[in-house]
Amino acid sequence: MPSTMNNSLPFTQQVSLTCAGHTRPVVQLSFSNIIANNRYFLISACKDGKPILRDGSTGDWLGTFVGHKGAVWSAMLSSDTLRAVTASADYTAKVWNAITGQELVSFMHDNIVKSADFAGSNELIVTGGQDKSVRIFDVNRPDKSITAACHTTPVRSVKWSKHRNMIISADNGRQINIIDIRAPSVAHTLETSDNIASISLTADGKTLACAAGKRVLAWDIDSFKLVKDFNVDYEVSVAAINPTRTRMVVGGRSDLLIRCCNFDTGKQIDAYKGHHGSVHDACFSPDGQVYATGSEDGTVRLWQTNPGSEYGLWQYRHI
């Protein structure tokens, strides 16, 4: 039986960093791996059709990828942070040079592409969208693809688990497929009792989080065992787990709150106000010190996992 989250705490104060630049709702966010000098990056997908790359710890704008002719639903960085892949309503997924912003290749589809990620290596791309199919493309052969799986409803999200070397795809209904890229074929299927709002992976790819209805669920990717199942009193839009699996960020469909919860117990630690629209996505930085949220209000906000500590632009005067 699912446990019930304690949501009785009032909202508290935290100074978040607001990252402007988008003109329409921000629908998906992703942090990169840590590279030299402990740097990492944040990429955002937006309905304005112009994904933005930022410094991950400060939110400073680094560049905009220009070339899509429709809303961009998904944006991810490669493991080496040198490339980005985006999925769009213009029926394409595109791979970009993340340093120069140059478009490298475009993968044509027959319908809206809702999600894309690098799969296996920086040469393989996995996509999913309105045509209900999960496809694998080779950057060197963009005119050909392999259908890895088919859902019964449009595909909402595709993720690559580097831990298991498998693709994870979720549809607009209640099904999550674990896909073996070597076959390719569906190795395992997970079911939810409510329609899926979002899925996310921990930084190591070992734990899968899912927001569905008024529930937050988490599976161990090795055993496919459901390890957490929390009930809440609101419709959940997103759930993301930090790298150490101690904290979880949860957003609601109809309110503006950002909730930080204990992952073991589901107990709400804090709730923050800041966005002026519903929260569409959330993700943790690779070091777990920061999490980002994207909203209907067109902004990205950065929040501290441990408010009051010095990190990035959060520097405090010592008296």
UniProtKB/TrEMBL annotation:
Entries under SMART domains matching the protein: WD40 (SM00320)
Protein name (Swiss-Prot/TrEMBL): Serine-threonine kinase receptor-associated protein
Keywords: mRNA processing, mRNA splicing, Repeat, WD repeat
One example of a Gene Ontology biological process annotation: spliceosomal snRNP assembly
UniProt xrefs under SUPFAM superfamilies: WD40 repeat-like (SSF50978)
Lineage top rank: taxon: Eukaryota
GO cellular component, one term: SMN complex
Matching Pfam families: WD40
InterPro entries attached to this UniProt entry: WD40/YVTN_repeat-like_dom_sf, WD40_PAC1, WD40_repeat_dom_sf, WD40_rpt
Start and stop residues of the WD repeats: 65-106, 106-147, 272-313
One Gene Ontology term of the molecular function aspect: RNA binding
Species of the source: Coemansia brasiliensis
Family: Belongs to the WD repeat STRAP family.
